Amino acid sequence: MPSVFVQGRPVDTYPRHAPEARQGRVRRITEVGEEILHKPCRDVTEFGPDLAALIDDMFLTMYLAHGAGLAANQVGVDLRLFVYDCPDDDGVRHVGHIVNPVLAPLPAPARHLLDDSEGCLSVPGAVMDVPRPDVATIQGLDKTGAPVTIEGTGYFARCLAHETDHVNGHVYLDRLSKRERKEAMRQMTDGREAVFAQRAANEEALKKRR
């Protein structure tokens, strides 16, 4: 099996970071509690250089924050769009973006939930176990408006579901009990400043390389 899939298609070779990140600029990552994270995003209706530039920015911002996925509302943009660079449980790397994503419903016999640890760049410093299906299929468009279907298993399926939640106005805390949400917020309070310090250091290192 190929070791890297880009936009759902196997490739022979691929760089450490998606090439889009080279043209991007770093954007501020929104935090839980900000209104834009808690309402459904608007469909993308215009495809062109502005959308491509946003995707570039999102890839770079995701990499500097050491994320596996990032939705547009996490950089303050009210659009249904996310980028990802995420492995599955077999170590296969998946890289790409998807516009106007729709998560296909799973029939009950095929729905197997896995409890596993999950974090979020918009909930800095917190990691909690969240039940998610072990497979996911997302349908949407690429930045040119062409249709695309992305399938994932294991950790990558979790990433696809997590990011689709974002564009629908939900964060993973919404899937936790009241007690679990309280614990996640405690972790965020304790770890937030260290996360921000690391992100700032990563951004400074990038400036020196450019």
Number of helices: 3
- What would the principal axes of the Cα set say about the shape? globular
Beta-strand content estimate: 25-35%
Whole-Å distance between the termini? 36 Å
Whole-number radius of gyration? 16 Å
| Overall SS class | alpha+beta
Low-confidence stretches: none
Major sheet size, sense and barrel closure = 7 strands, mixed
Percent of residues in helices: 25-40%
Instruction: Give the tally of β-strands.
Output: 9
Provide the descriptors you would attach to this structure in a database record.
3 helices, alpha+beta, globular, 9 strands, 210 residues, single chain, 7-stranded mixed sheet, two-stranded antiparallel sheet
What does this molecule look like?
- The longest helix is centred in the C-terminal third of the chain and has 32 residues, at 178-209.
- A hairpin with a 7-residue loop joins β6 and β7.
- The model has no long low-confidence stretch (mean pLDDT 95).
- The protein starts with a strand and ends with a helix.
- 36% of the residues are buried.
- It contains three helices and nine strands, in the order ββαβββββββαα.
- Strands 1, 2, 3, 4, 5, 8 and 9 form a seven-stranded mixed beta sheet that branches. Strands 6-7 form a two-stranded antiparallel ribbon.
- The protein is globular.
- It has helices at residues 49-64, 154-167, 178-209, and strands at residues 4-6, 9-11, 69-71, 81-87, 93-103, 113-119, 127-133, 135-141, 147-153.
- The chain is of the alpha+beta class and 210 residues long.
